[in-house]
Amino acid sequence: MIFVRLLIIMILISSCSSKENNGSIAQQADYNNYLEVEELSTSSKYFDLWNSKIRPDSMQLTSFGIVGGEYSRYFQRTGDIQYLKKAEQSLKRAVEIAAIGKAGYYRALARNYISQHRFKEALQLTDSAMAINGSKVEGQRIYFDIHMELGNYTLAEKYLDSIRNMSDFGYMIRLAKWNDYKGDLDTTIKFMELAGKKAESAKNSELMLWSYTNLADYYGHAGRIKDSYDHYLKALAIDKHNAYAKKGIAWILFSNDNNPKEAIRILDSVTETYRAPDYFLLKAEIADYMGNDLVRTKNLDRYFTLVQDPAYGDMYNAYNLGLYLDETEQYDKALNLANREVMNRPTPESYSWLAFSHLRKGDKEKAMELMDTHVYGKTFEPALLYQAAEVYKANGIYDKVKKLKGELIGALYELGPHMEKQIQDL
């Protein structure tokens, strides 16, 4: 399950830093009230009103836009891919019939495609929106987001510079993301804190929620585990159903507090109503660490069942790569999927998986060539650094292994307790 862990970490964290010597932090009394299971509502009078106006030959533009937005919100609350696909259908229809405001619908559909990891299609939609002379700033924001996902970092920086405005929340969070990519964690946190204060002053609960969960992640990267925990709790105080914040607390219990059983209990409460496949994979990983093969197998089966749905498209390619390489040893299948990921989004992460697939197939020279060209020195993510270290170890490049090992030892909180032995063995 080593490589499954690497995928989980790449979602929970995105940069490497030292860990403080922390004791147990999470307390049941702080979060127990948020774990009560209740089925989330995916309808409302407002939604039903507008949805009822839609017919097969409908030209009710307003209905499609509103319904699409509501479906997107339901996806965020439930993790159910069908809501994201229904939002796509509504927004595509809005694009088809809009005579005015079409650029806005193009941008909304582009954001939907970003969520589906359809980045090149999102780029085409953003081009279409800009050609209509829609909001230039909104278009440039989306260009930045897409080019970061595609690994076009020079272009991303260009679009970031084009929206420079230190009083704008959208600019500050993107500036934080840029500094995270550059490996400047202190500056990343600084700008996210400024963005959070701006959201608070505006009393915008949606932006506050977004700020708190992102700050919690960044504090975790910095080894500020108590600050991370406090901000996940602040997010839950706004939205008691927020699955991401609960997952963050579960990770603290697992990786910092040495309490995997409690981490599983939290995640079990989440997956009663939240259907995203990666949550089941995380439960399987923690169960593997505990030596509970029954729980591990049950959750792996649940993950595999969910991701067979073609609606997920390429969203879980990276997770599947980890399973092919470690769990099922389907190395040819992994190599094909890694090549697909590189075609979809030629980032250091995608190339790292491609290199690792070559290593597992026995082509250590090709693996090192890919690491040298596309990964080493181009990312600060501990999960990718671990993959690079394994490749360099196989090739006998021990000076690089030693350097990477030092960085990885300082990232044990991010990588988790199960990785400690693997890092020491490098």
UniProtKB/TrEMBL annotation:
PROSITE patterns: PROKAR_LIPOPROTEIN. InterPro entries: TPR-like_helical_dom_sf (IPR011990), TPR_rpt (IPR019734). This is Tetratricopeptide repeat protein. Gene3D superfamilies: Tetratricopeptide repeat domain. SMART domains: TPR.
